[in-house]
Amino acid sequence: MASIDYSSSTSDSESDTTEASESTDSFSSFDESEDDTENYNDISDEKTYRELSCAFGTNEENLKENVPGNQKLQIKGLTECKEFLRNLSIFIWNSLTKSQRVSLLKDFVESEFFLIDGDSLFITCIWNKTFKKGQNLHFFYLVEQFLHNFNQKEARYVIVFFKDGENMYFDYPELLSLRTALIQHLEHNTQVPIHTEFSSCLSPEWEIFLKESYPYFLIVSDKGITTHQTDYLNILIIHTLHKKINVVLASGQETNILRVFGYQTQSLYTHGEFFEKVCFNKHSHLKETSDIRSTVCSLSCSVVLKTYKNMQDGAETIRKQREDTEEKTLTLQEAVDLCRMLCLSVAFLQILPLSQRAKSRIIHCHWEKKLSPFLRMMKRCEFFILKEIKSTNEWKVDFTFLPDLTDNLLWKNIAYYYEVENCTGLNLEVGDKIMQEYEKMWNTVLSLSQGYDFGGSIPVRRTSQHFLTQTQTSSRAYKHEIPKLGLIPLKSQFVEDYAGDILEDLPFLSSDDPVITSFNQRKEFDERIHWHSNRLLSDDYSIPNNLKCLLKLGKSNADKIIEENIKRKQEEIEKKEQDRWNSMSVSIENEIKENVNNGIKILEHFLRTCNSNSVKFLAEIVGMEACFMSWIDHCLNVEEKPKDMNIAVQLMKRIHIIHEKYSQLMEKKHWKKLAKCLKYLGFDNLSDSLCSQDISKYSVQMGAARFQLSHMGHYLFREERSDPDPRVHHFIPDTWQRELLDVVDNNESAVIVAPTSSGKTYVSYYCMEKILKTSDEALVVYVSPTKALINQVVGTVYSLFNKTKPKGGAICGVFTRDYRHDVMNSQILVTVPQCLEILLLSPHYQKWVKRIRYVIFDEVHCLGGEIGAEIWEHLLVMIRCPFLALSATISNPEYLTKWLASVRRYWQNFETTAENSTSSKNTLKSSKNPKISKTEKLSYRVRLVLYKERYNDLEKYVCSLKDDDFVISHYHPCAALTVNHIEKYGIPLDLGFSPRESIQLYDAMVQIWPEWPRVQDFEPEEFSYFKDKVVITKTDAKKYEEQLKEEIINWIHSDKDKVTKFFENYVINKMGLSSNLHHIASDLFADFVEKLKEIDKLPAIFFSFNIHEIENSAFHVLKNMKFKQNTYQSLDADKEIKKLRRALWKTRRSLRANINNGLNYIIKLTFILSFQTLWKIFHRIRYERNRGKVKALALRGIGFHHGSMAYKERQAVEMLFRQGYIKVMSATGSLALGINMPCKSVVFTEDSVFLDALNFRQMSGRAGRRGEDLIGSIFFYNIPLPKVQRLLKSNVPRLRGQFPLSISLILRLILLVTTADDKDDAKAKALSILQHSMMSFDKPKMKNMLKVYFIFSLQFLFREGYLDQECIPRGFSGLAIHLYYHEPSNFVLVSFLEKGLFHKLCQPMKQKSPKVFSEDVMKTLVLILAHLFGKRYLPSCAKKYKKIFSQSKVILDDLPKDFAIAIEEYNNKIENDFGSFLLLVSKLADMSKEYQLPLSEIDFSGEECRDSELVSHLMPGTENRSAVSPFACLSEIVDKDLFNIEVVNDIMLRTIDVHAENAPFLWLKKYDRDGSRRHLNAYALDFYKHGSMKALIKDNWISLRELCDDEQDDVVLAFGQLHEAYCRKLYKKE
């Protein structure tokens, strides 16, 4: 571990605190003074550090002098403990600093179980800036909102409160009481699983819990309220990481509609090593169902008053102290007054609805310091009462309103009334209902205080001593006053068409308002040229209209002649095939008898190359007879040893093929041969002939059905049609595939959901072929999410299609963000979503867009992804042509299809309206546009094509170690299931069983329940679909599987305990699995590869998510191969090689002389890749950085693949793997999506936060591709069993809408509408995006909210000068659109340019050409750009950890002052505009839900109290609070607070579904909930300074120009010089 400068860590921590205190409002502390204005840090600094000094012996020298000798050992122990905590803190800071910001909830969230540390949740909500001490209900609202964000996203989690955590709060009784109330509220009022039985994270029970559940991660805070608690949390963190469970920081979490993001620290080997090495080497008056509020209040007041009375009676010094000191203590009568007012405030809580309480007036007072001891005592009593209520079953109370025990501000308000206003003559009626509840509560206090006279309930206040001290200023400063809500009127028909229905209800400014008259006219933006260089946007070839393409697709005359020749020469072909078989049959038959596997391979190769069915039939008969004789010989010689079932499998396979494919060619003698084989195998029920001889010793000892399911599952015949489809020449399509062909032929759209490797992609190429045949100008667009898939699709297109094009034309074009080729002049464009969106939204490419006849969306489930999902949505709603949407992982395809159908109806209505209104005009246009034949008339139907069956079975295996050898155990899918999961989610739709797994399931069920009534129905030999069948098909086996699943569900309904026993005691225990590789996994990786080779499971892809581990694994295998070669290579190896080469040469020469192709199959079996082809592939990467690595590994059949590789390197590795040269491929998720990489096996080599069920499904789909393998194998190597279970049992994700709009997108839509060549088409596209988002589908209120957001965006664009009043783009619109992907940095960059800040900065050292800029200018430019683009925030704890020796600075410096001021001005305008927007959309909130807690749904609405003058006085509603959450109002939040972007997410009305991230706000300084600052990573500036990629990886934890029209402008030149400097550093050799 690097040496650490600990002193600097301390100073940094102090500076962080200072920053936080400057930027955040003060937090009301829970210390002894109860002073509302004191900062939170007062809790944890002075007192806690004083306690630590005592506990850990800070003044060690003084202690050594003063203590006796026998105490020195104790001091030494305390010193060591202190040192341990110090080292632990440094180690934790080091680990957490490297945290990655990730999406915590993946698409399969219901499968990813995780933990939340309850105390971390508690202190995170306590630190919330909007929370005010004592406002319990608001606190519980914040907690439930935090958890509700997870629940909305269907997350599965458990909250854990450790018993030892309670000890951290004993000095803070209010926190102690609040924590106890929180636990009980979550237990009684919510469905959240709460665990409080664990004493600490070191308890054995906790260890067992972690082992059994293996959570996805633990959410925990890295900072406690006290230093003691921070140390406690550090121990929890290191223990969690030691247990190979990832940690997510509670601070720094952000959320949007679909995702929750946080900082995740992955468990590493070093965590376990540190943990093991350093850490641990060593009563009757209460009525039933009474309200919890009145119960706790009455008991607390009674107990505390009796205790206080006894204390005063027993201590005469108290009276003396009262007389002799200025600071007087509280008298008993004053304490009674305080309790009466508390009871009255609780009565208010019971009667008043939240809507009325939210109107509470704001007073700036806090409790007198002398009340502190009594208030602390009150909270301690409250804590013990809550604990007693929980532990005592006799107290039956209603826990519903536990979150609302007290309201501190309401208590103060009542005290202020009686203390100030009532004394001056104001006498208000309390009201009958409130008074009744109050008297009832006070009478309970008196009855519980028998023997003590505390007086009656009236008057409430009997003493005159002041309880409150008034503060001079408000506790919260507002940056903005609520502005005048007036919109600037914009004159645009497009705006009127979209949002005209809500514009009537919005306020507008008058035309002579200064805001409008002060607007500066700017030059209109012309999108026909690049904004930075005056170059034309299109530099592609245009398709010449006067040239016609010559097709080479379809049936030419030559094709027809060939067909006729084939028919005439059919008899000759039959004869040749017969001669070829006659020459080979004897050798094949002998080979089968000697070695069944090799002989069958040769036979099957012949069958694949044979063109005669009759000859194939004869070959199968010979193969069957040879297998039969081999089985007879084997059974005679096997004696007592187990029989080799593989021979019987091959024999039965031949019987299957002959029976199913060639039954029409069979004669009676052939049927007798089949019957004889079946008889000898022991399948008497299938044999049609009798045999008198004793053949029992040849039997397989099981029935025919069981044998076929157990041993021949992957050979069972699939449901394949035998009738060819004239549209397809290469294979016979299945029924569902023919439906896809019908979709394309009818020009319809379709959502296609089918398993990986099922063959759904073929329809894409059929669609391309159809377009190429029928038109010379029509266009197909193929949209793919990854470059790897694009490369493969392009290669396939070029290999399939050939068409003569004119000069400048092309069949296929490519458009990605870093590469474009033949975009405008191709007929098939393969692209990524972002680039297609650019083309569709371009105003001047509409003619090109109208050429599109089909769009194919591959992997359309990316519609629900984290990044770029909204772009997929935009494309789906903008395209006017039919589409194909393909995916394997969508659980709600019906909803998706319904939404897309509504979009297609929109376009149908648009086309109909346009045709009816301007039919003559459209006729003229159609003559100029590409012609569409009548048969190609557009259809607006959207079909849903579902296919659930995977062609190949997937079997799973778990790897473990036993006696220094690998044990590979089959993992039955049922081992992943539980009764609870099936009851809640059902059996996952894609959790399939192989035929042998179905038999295993049946046997297990019989063993668990021998008396099972339906046992005979499911006996394989008696099952209706199997009985007396010679050949069982895959469909029959699937029926068996489905009925077994139904029977399991029936078992659950009838006897749940039996099924629980079945899952827990049989399936799991029988497997006896344990993945015990752990820390030695990487060392044994090469041996594991050898193991897979032994069992014939190569080629395989080994998936990991660590790039460096990917390469290391590949080189581990290479090193192991070289070692074994050097170890076992004989001394005469060279001579043997020469001898083999000569023998091979002689064989080839003899083959040439042999009969036509005689035994050429032998060479073909061993031949993989020619030397010339291999050399060509290596030649392509001769200039790439990793060429040496790739070549060295590939020559040994090894490869690696990840996204950081160069394009040509990845392409070379993919080609080598597909052609069979590479057998071992280590890869990241770069090979997960769709790309065709056929392999036998997929191996998951390590656990990771990115190994979620979506990635698992995509990656595992690579195994056993159709046409390559009959079965695929999945291996879990070093993956914990609980993780394996969750991966298997999770359901596929549901697609939900994204927030569809951004200000940059709206600017792009305005540009499209105003400058397009075809205005109607442009407006229709823009409206389709605005009106048909998935998020607002069937949600009218959501649609209205989006309309208001649209208006807000237009106002922003107008005020910033991007639009004029006619909504015409002006000024720097082009620059903002060009950088749309980087919103809001694009708008901030424009503001810098407008203010001339860059021109002020970029002053050259000399004015004469060439202009050169100083290094300081370059560094400052990098600093500014690093604050705008490519931002990476570090965890807030990063500044605590500093390396003494580091090339990088790591933490980015603040912006120069003038740039920071410009951002502050920009942000102030954004806050002002966004706050106004929130005020407007607040009317769309569902207020019935706003008065409910988000998680428990406890309702605090009700009828307002009208009969109380005091209520009307205390809650006048004079402050504006209509647009903020009523729960937040309890902490004195008002509408003005909406103009502070930092607190918006916590205080806004939650049902309007808007987040602060929807505002283009650029954070100048970002803070966590606890006020700690999150700094930016300085990787860009550090790299510019030292130019070392290695330093970025080590120190920064980073894995791997244009500004204005004048090209000679100083700013452009400065950025150009900066670009050149980066290129030199980036591409230099290290």
From TrEMBL:
Keywords annotated in UniProt: ATP-binding, Helicase, Hydrolase, Nucleotide-binding
Span list, region Disordered: 1-42
GO molecular function: ATP binding; helicase activity; hydrolase activity; nucleic acid binding
PROSITE patterns found in the cross-reference section: HELICASE_ATP_BIND_1 (PS51192), HELICASE_CTER (PS51194)
Domain called Helicase C-terminal: residue spans: 1139-1307
Domain of life: Eukaryota
Protein name: DExD/H-box helicase 60
